[in-house]
Amino acid sequence: MNRIVMLKLTKKKKTNELTMEILLKRIARRNAYTIGKLYVDGKYVCDTIEDKDRNLSDSMSVSEIGKNKVKHQTAIPTGRYEVSLNVVSPKFSLKPFYYTNANKGRVPRLLNVKGFDGILIHCGTNQNSSSGCIIVGENKVVGKVINSQATFIKLYKILKEAKDKIYITIK
User: Fold this and answer.
1) What's the pLDDT score for residue 2?
2) What number of CA atoms fall less than 13 Å from residue 103's CA on the CB side?
3) How many CB atoms lie within 10 A of CB 157?
4) DSSP code for 123
């Protein structure tokens, strides 16, 4: 008896999505703050300062994160997040030139961060500028970043070149 075997071939959808990948590598965890190095598509761009790293991970439940989080004093969980440049910050849309001129008040926002809301990448000097956000600059002073405004403008110009989606991985 001859059997006819029919194979169903499925054509995979070809994706031409060009993602931009940001890596934030936390390199110094201190009692009150966390210092990191930020890379875009494998190239070093700047240093960062965040609140204290309390060993939160995106693999934890929201309730676990909530138990370990100290409001306005905790770095966001490690993990991978999409970044949007389409959010106009009410706070930063009225601020000095480095937000209004460079990006019309748009600030990179991390999406779907468990246990956190409104996480941005923006200017500042130390962990007190953070409230969970990522502050960019040059870490040339202990516990601080300097040249934050110029660094932010540099980073924003790079991110604006993204063709499709932007993701950040925090390690």
Assistant:
1) 52
2) 29
3) 11
4) -
* Spans in the chain with pLDDT lower than 70: 1-17, 92-102
Token readout for 46 is: 């700047």
With contact defined as beta carbons under 8 Å apart, do 63 and 41 qualify?
Answer: no
Contact 98, 153 (CB under 8 A): yes
* Phi/psi at 6 (5° precision): -105, 130
In the numeric block, the tokens 């962990």 are attached to 127
**Spatial CA neighbour of 45 closest among 156, 141, 144:** 156
Return the bridge partners of 36, or none.
Answer: 26, 48
> What DSSP state is assigned to residue 91?
T
State in Å, rounded, how far the first CA of the chain is from the last one.
60
Which of these, 96, 94, 87, 97, lies nearest to 121 by C-alpha position?
A: 87
**Rounded Cα gap, residues 123 and 136, in angstroms:** 6
Closest to 50 (Cα-Cα) out of 84, 78, 89:
78
Query: What value, to the nearest 5°, has the Cα angle with vertex 152 and ends 46 and 88?
Result: 140
Q: Enter the pTM of the model.
A: 0.86
Spatial distance between the Cα atoms of 73 and 75, rounded to a whole number of angstroms: 7
Query: How many angstroms separate the CA atoms of 155 and 150, rounded?
Result: 9
**Cα 72 versus chain centre, distance:** 17
